[in-house]
Amino acid sequence: MAFLELKGVSKGFGTFGHRTEVLRDLDLSVERGEFVAIVGYSGSGKTTLINLIAGLQLPDSGTVSINDLEVTGPGPDRGIVFQNYSLLPWLTVRENIALAVDQLFPNWSAARKRQHIDHHVGLVGLSHAVDRRPAELSGGMRQRVSVARALAMDPQVLLLDEPLGALDALTRATLQDEIGRIGSASGKTIVLITNDPDEGILMADRIIPLGAGPGATLGPSIVVDLERPRDRKALNHDPRFKAIRAEIVRWLLGPGAHKSTSVSRKLVLPDLEPEDLDLPRTLFGVKRVARRRSEQVRENIELR
Ligand SMILES: Nc1ncnc2c1ncn2[C@@H]1O[C@H](COP(=O)(O)OP(=O)(O)O)[C@@H](O)[C@H]1O
Ligand SMILES: [Mg+2]
Question: CA 191 to CA 30: how far, in whole Å?
């Protein structure tokens, strides 16, 4: 059994009768120390998938397990970095991280905690800003703090939910390199969610595309057999990089990623019947007018 396992996981939202299945029958295996990227459309259920692994939501059917233990709630063995930075604005960088460290390692001495925090702040290159508050940091710096906080919790699994999505292209590129480097150096098991195939290829060991919803399913597992460190400029001309990207995009654009579902909807048509201009204006002495009718028609339509 792999370190992180999803077996037959489905999850939907809404009440009975208006329920939308977001994820359908997902199987996923991630080995210890592996860096896997899930690449998918916006709204396809990527955050839902991360929430299920994090234990913030529970599947309708199927199981999520880590190290052979079923996930039944959130826990410190899984560190999460969200797309929005989720830092407390009135606390400094050090205090934001201390909040997590104090809770997880209550028995450590103050000096040890401080050294642990400063080490992780240094890891993301923010030593100079350790006493600043979030408002005094750029978006990229805030996201570095989130990464440092997640790493300082020393989790077994690092869950990254589109962590770089809100950043400008240049900052994004820098952080892709940094997180890729820190990730592989830490030896942690990492699941990265992204909507950018290139980001996945640059950072991960393996990529799994997630199809469009509703009822999104995971595609084939694509191994990124490119040497590290990966140089984004050189990669652009690398035939293997192009082949991997083509494979991901082909699946995401192909029929496997777009399930069509048949739904029954009540359509309310305009209360009017068009006039047939072929008929004479007057019929049997009665002047013809466009007729109204009141009716509702039930039809089956295909949604894509
Ligand atoms: N708590 C919820 N209640 C109802 N619908 C939800 C909830 N969370 C997500 N959804 C719906 O599930 C779908 C997938 O959402 P999400 O997992 O956030 O997608 P992604 O992260 O890929 O953009 C969306 O259609 C969203 O509206
Ligand atoms: Mg999301």
Answer: 8
* Residue 162 CA, closest ligand 1 atom number: 21
Q: What is the pLDDT of residues 142-179, one digit of tens each?
A: 999 999 999 999 999 999 999 998 888 999 999 999 88
Q: Which ligand is nearest to the CA of 12?
A: 1
In which band, very low, low, confident or very high, does the pLDDT at 197 lie, cut at 50, 70 and 90?
A: very high
Query: How many Å apart are CA 49 and CA 162, to the nearest integer?
Result: 12
Residue ranges of domains in the chain, CATH in brackets: 4-77+155-257 (3.40.50.300), 87-147 (no CATH), 264-303 (no CATH)
The three-state (H, E, C) secondary structure of 211-280, written as one string: CCCCCECECCCEECCCCCCCCHHHHCCCHHHHHHHHHHHHHHHCHHHCCCEEEEEEEECCCCCCCCCCCC
Question: Is residue 48 within 6 Å of ligand 1 at its C-beta?
Answer: yes
3-class secondary structure for 125-156?
CCHHHCCCCHHHCCHHHHHHHHHHHHHHCCCC
Q: Which tokens belong to 63?
A: 């199981």
Whether 208 and 37 have beta carbons less than 8 Å apart is answered as yes
pTM for this structure? 0.84
Mutational pocket test of ligand 1: of 10, 11, 16, 47, the residue with most ligand atoms within 8 Å of the beta carbon: 47
pLDDT tens, residue by residue, 264-298: 667 777 677 666 777 777 767 777 666 666 655 56
SS3 label, residue 120: helix
